[in-house]
Amino acid sequence: MIGIKMSDLRHRLTLEEPQLTPDAGGGAAINWVKLADLWGYIEPLSGRESFIEHQTETVLTHKIIIRFRQGVLPEMRLVHGSRIFEIISVINEKERDVWLQLECKEQRL
Fold first, then answer.
1. Domain 6-108 has CATH 2.40.128.20
2. Beta pairing class for 99-108 and 83-92
3. Mapping DSSP to helix (H, G, I), strand (E, B) and coil, where does residue 7 land?
4. For the whole model, what pTM was predicted?
């Protein structure tokens, strides 16, 4: 059970989806397109560091709660200021169409 009130949704988030745009070399570039501005609750869950190719990478995971919204998928992301949260999973709390619990990954290099 989430146990959250509307007043807990204090973080202004932007929901974005990827859009492929063809480039001159025959490939495609990913552009992020804004879908909506949302209010959400961000709760840090865990963090770890790893050393990959002579570079330290920090990975933080978060639980983000938003009001139910149709069509939110793991391919999407949330933006909060300069922070980017990749959506890993989407859970419709008790299948009641009231809250979505998003497990997200925030990467920092």
1. no
2. antiparallel
3. helix
4. 0.85
3-state helix, strand and coil shares in percent for the chain, rounded to the nearest 5 = 5, 70, 25
User: Is residue 31 within 8 Å of residue 19, measured between CB atoms?
Assistant: yes
Q: What are residue 99's phi and psi, to 5 degrees?
A: -125, 150
Please state, in angstroms and rounded to a whole number, the distance separating the CA atoms of residues 65 and 60: 16
Enter the tokens of residue 28: 């495609």
Model pLDDT for residues 10-62, shown as the tens digit of each residue: 999 999 999 998 888 888 889 999 999 999 999 999 888 777 777 777 889 99
Tally the C-alpha atoms within 13 A of residue 103's C-alpha that lie toward its C-beta: 7
Structure token digits, residue 21: 């745009």
Q: What angle do CA 34, 71, 36 make, to 5 degrees?
A: 25
* CB neighbour list of residue 107: distance below 8 Å, 6 or more residues apart: 57, 58, 59, 60, 84, 86
